[in-house]
């Protein structure tokens, strides 16, 4: 059974043939009103919808909260590594077979974490769409049938008319932060830091329609759409933070070095050549790859860590990046939680060395929350997949916002780094759909 969720009874499993676009199916389920909480997660060739909460794990700075079928909700303090707190919470799940979905905040790695650090659910109903077929598994037969009927519809979901958000605001404040970071680098405090800026959206947002519009315009490594506890987000992640298969093979894909994309074939080719030969961009990428290698050396079997596709150009919506893959095999005593602890937060969204860069981000910025954190899926068999949260929209209590950053090194200039944030914001800013 690939998608089993057990309580006291066998789950219901259905297969639905569908000619609809998988993206439209995900949007239809998300907008159906059947589920208060849900997560949509796209991997190459596959979309998964996880609806409802059969079980739930919420990690705050002071306690880990769990809710499992057949047991009262509980909360207990934790200390040490937050990854261990999550590992222990799922180890106590009274479900022999489960999958979980959710998010982890950037502050998960902060030296003095505050606020909500992670929110994950084991869903009541899962839908996996591959090759024109939707595989539905659920613990509630009535809900499962309702989902199957939704999937069988032939209509498509209207995606709304976008109202582009102006990305060229807040420049002076951001340039000042970049200049401060460059000075701290020259003072020897760290080698690299990602400095970001928040851009508030000046109208209420239809997050589901924004997901549809944005996904059609982007070519992400992973995409996601979620609503957990009233917090909504959708994004088009350019890179995989950590992926672990059940056999312990772990992979990460650091991207560093950025230029605009979508300017026309001649301009894109010219900018690509510039990206591939710019000493600042090459240095930024090389040190990120080296850091990822060092992180995997700490959790993998000696001799298994390797770099592939070194410094190839990845086209991601409105930008193109230098990218590489770093992989290895986890040591026998290690698990996906150790890989997460080693690789989180992504080096390309924090800096080098990480500890000093994270401390600098705490000085230079307001709390990030999900930005530069991860959307994750994990399973009882040890499998784990996580998307680095960039190129995303966030929405809570009627206020939506975007966020983007740039990697600051000794050769950075405030004007160029501000321009890079505009290029990255343009992956989603033109596709934001207002509420009707």
UniProtKB/TrEMBL annotation:
EC number of this enzyme: 4.2.99.21
Cofactor(s) this protein cannot do without: Mg(2+)
Broad enzyme group: lyase
The keyword Lyase belongs to this UniProt entry's keyword annotation: yes
Every Chorismate-utilising enzyme C-terminal domain range: 172-424
InterPro entries: ADC_synthase, Anth_synth_I-like, Chorismate_C, Salicylate_synthase
Pfam families in alphabetical order: Chorismate_bind (PF00425)
Record keywords: Lyase, Magnesium, Metal-binding
Molecular function (Gene Ontology), one example: isochorismate pyruvate lyase activity
PANTHER family for the chain: AMINOBENZOATE/ANTHRANILATE SYNTHASE (PTHR11236), ISOCHORISMATE SYNTHASE MENF (PTHR11236:SF48)
Protein name: Salicylate synthase
